[in-house]
């Protein structure tokens, strides 16, 4: 995990798996953690899964979190705040396009801030 | 009023009972303007809350409320999880160190909880979310010197009913824009169950 890592937070594990497949095909050198669906595998989000995904891919360059709708963002932010992670940021960008752009940038060895800025470009309100 | 460990356990147990009884109703409300999981989410979360707190011994209300929060955060699965989880966490933090809660402490704790919900959901009053029940209650308590169970419950009920005419600006229902008008907000209804349970428990203890 020499590069910035990514965590995908979605209401569905199919979404997180699918996005990971799309990204790793082009960028194999970036670790991608997934937190899709609830504990029971239903549609929803789960803060414990998010925490686990972050810890699985955390390296010295940090982690960027991408989320889909509603509770995904709230749980992503809560997971970061409650565990007081450093170098773990929630990114304001569409989950697929944002994570894809971020992975490409991360794969080039860019810093957390650089990767986040690239992903948020065009999207931040 | 006094909220102690025993009647806080009662409060949560009664809230769980009401939520289980109305699980289908809450889900129907959420089907109309959301994804139809609010009853399931709340029933799962509060079932776990009751299991957790009835199996644990507590020295003080703050620790109990913290467990309520952590359980809801982990188990609910939808927006209600981080929102109620944050609310009970703020309430627990606001009363840290006190074995029981008197009215002034409860009042300020509830205000902190409301602030937490608003910050977490980036929501304001009038956006057809549970804030539309919590905020009128906090405002009502601010004008009171002691806890009046009947008054508290009726403010909660009116506030819950008033969400029907609102257009949703936050949460899943917001995607429906004006189509959300004419339906109660599911989270406001579940908040009503939580607060009416509190009123019932405190009324008994008079
Ligand atoms: N941003 C928000 N701020 C405040 N309250 C909200 C917000 N979003 C949703 N809610 C409240 O949560 C209730 C819905 O809870 P529920 O558990 O069904 O979540 P959900 O919307 O299905 O979650 P998800 O975002 O995972 O789809 C709404 O009725 C509303 O009261
Ligand atoms: Mg729902």
Characterise the protein shown here.
- Chain A is of the alpha/beta class.
- Chain A has a domain at 25-62 and 82-100.
- Helices cover 48% and strands 15% of the residues of chain A.
- Chain A has helices spanning 13-26, 47-57, 71-83, 95-107, 112-120, and strands spanning 5-10, 32-36, 63-67, 88-90.
- Chain A has a four-stranded parallel sheet with strand order 2-1-3-4, with helices on both faces.
- Chain A is globular, with a radius of gyration of 13 Å.
- Chain A starts with a strand and ends in a 5-residue tail after the last helix.
- The model of chain A has no long low-confidence stretch (mean pLDDT 96).
- Chain B has a single domain (2-205), classed as Serine Threonine Protein Phosphatase 5, Tetratricopeptide repeat, CATH 1.25.40.
- Chain B has helices at 5-21, 23-33, 38-54, 61-75, 80-94, 103-121, 131-142, 149-162, 186-204.
- By secondary structure, chain B is mainly alpha-helical.
- Chain B is globular.
- In chain B, helix 2 (23-33) runs antiparallel to helix 3 (38-54) and helix 8 packs antiparallel against helix 9 (186-204).
- Helices cover 67% and strands 0% of the residues of chain B.
- The interface between A and B is medium-sized, with 16 and 18 residues.
- Adenosine-5'-triphosphate sits between chains B (30, 34-35, 37-38, 41, 78-80, 83, 121, 123, 129-131, 170-172, 185-188) and A (11, 44-45, 69-71).
- Chain A: It is an enzyme of class 2 (transferase).
- Chain A: Keywords: Kinase, Transferase.
- Chain A: Its EC number is 2.7.1.121.
- What is the H/E string of chain B? HHHHHHHHH
CATH level-two architecture of chain B: Alpha Horseshoe
Tell me the helix content of chain A: 40-55%
**Total DSSP E strands of chain B:** 0
For this structure, the quaternary state is heterodimer
Our count of domains of chain B comes out at 1
Summarize the biggest pleated sheet of chain A: 4 strands, parallel
Specify the structural class of chain B: mainly alpha
Bound molecules: adenosine-5'-triphosphate, magnesium ion
Question: pLDDT average of chain A, as an integer?
Answer: 96
Q: Which regions of chain A contain 5 or more consecutive residues with pLDDT less than 50?
A: none
- The DSSP helix count of chain A reads 5
Q: What do we call the CATH topology of chain B?
A: Serine Threonine Protein Phosphatase 5, Tetratricopeptide repeat
**Whole-angstrom Rg of chain B:** 16 Å
* Low-pLDDT windows of residues of chain B: none
Q: Helix count of chain B?
A: 9
Domain PTS EIIA type-4 (chain A): 3-125
Pfam families (chain A): EIIA-man
EC number (chain A): 2.7.1.121
Keywords (chain A): Kinase, Transferase
